[in-house]
Write the structure tokens for this entry.
Amino acid sequence: MRQYNSTQKQKGFTLIELVVVISILAILAAFALPRFAQLSEQAHQSSIKGTAGALSAGVALAKAQWVTNGFTTATEDLAGFGDETVNISANGWPVSAGSQTYTGPANGDNVTMTDDRCVNVWEALLQANAPDVAASGTGVDYLASGSGSLCTYIYQLDNQSSSIEYNAANGEITTTIN
């Protein structure tokens, strides 16, 4: 008959030890999961703010190049800026690019931005690694729409309708985070 030796080492965990460890992990997960969900929302917001900053910088650089070139009237194909296809209003703000010529008033007031012009301005000012933009469709980062002198770029990836707005009459960029 075999005798039990009390000095023999245990080879495993007891059920109580396993339950305690699983309970601790469940408590940690309950606190961590909401924090990770919030990080995703913060990442979307940071992406929108960063893109708005890049667009604002592009607008300011185009205006600076227009002033540096000595222009005081509407200009097509701004020399020295990007791929030299940006068209500038009489007030010095980007209003179109490429084949979308500017035919607005000579004084720069009442600029009319269309969906296509908004897409072209975005693509011309945010040339490298820019988020995708389109006037319609799915699978893009932003949907662009033009109305009056405003271009509105609605962020699609978080389904919150956050947006970036560009005013072609005064160069102002406004960000709305929902």
